[in-house]
Amino acid sequence: MDEPEYTLHFGVYGVVIEQGHILCIHKNSGPYKNRYDLPGGSQEPGEGLTETLVREVYEETGQKVKKYSHPRIYDTFIKPHTKSVTTHHVFALYTVSLHEEVSDLPLYVADGLNDSDGVTWVKISELNELNASPLILKVLDEQSNKETTIDKSRYEHWTVIDKKLNNNQNQRR
Predict the structure, then answer these.
(1) Rounded distance, CA 39 to CA 65, Å?
(2) Which helix or strand (DSSP H or E) is residue 98 part of?
(3) 10 pairs with which residues across the strands?
(4) Mean pLDDT over all residues of the chain?
(5) Contacts for 79-82: CB closer than 8 Å, 24+ residues apart
(6) Over 36-79, what HEC string results?
(7) What is the pTM of this model?
């Protein structure tokens, strides 16, 4: 029997929760395409974790990080049902507070095209496996004090959504 094929991806992400809402981006590519995701992404050469956090949050939300705290790390295994490769996504999360100014999202960022189609506040109670990335699902586990939060998560038949989310929540609450 053939060994399963794996790729490794590491990223740094910000978690902003206010009044029962979480700040999400609309992902426009990759396995989380057309789902809600956390602002963040991959490190650039020589970049520290918090430098990546600050840069990625700004690139994907247009807002500057004011403060960050509570670093933690998780991992998940994602295998889209249409692919033979499983991605092992290792991710560092930070709790973040933001300055209020907002700028336009850049089309191009340092590492290529921006994979965020915009930012929105979503009620935590409206997020689930059908509309959110595994990163957000891990935050939901944290919020509910799930005993297995620190354990890896695994999605063997992950669905990549082809059409955009129906969303009317493009403004801050």
Answers:
(1) 11
(2) strand 85-98
(3) 90
(4) 86
(5) 79/155, 79/156, 79/157, 79/158, 80/31, 80/158, 80/159, 80/160, 81/157, 81/158, 81/159, 82/160
(6) EECCEECCCCCCCHHHHHHHHHHHHHCCCEEEEEEEEEEEEEEE
(7) 0.85
